[in-house]
Amino acid sequence: MQRFSTEESARGYFEAMRWPNGPVCPHCGNCDRARVYAVAPNTEKKIRAGLYKCAECKGQFTVTMGTVMEDSHIPLNKWLIAFYIICASKTQVSALQLQRQLELGSYRTAWFLCHRIRFSLANATPEDQLDGVIEADETYVGGKKRGHGRAYVGNKTAVVSLVERDGRVRSTVVEMVNGQEIARLLKKQASLDANLNTDESRLYKKVGKEFASHDVVNHSREEYSRRDYMTGRIATTNTVEGFFGNSKRALDGTHHHISKAHAGLYFSELDYKYNTRKVSDGKRTALGIQQMTGKRLMLRRPKNNISE
Question: The domain spanning residue 244 has which CATH number?
Answer without folding.
Answer: 3.30.420
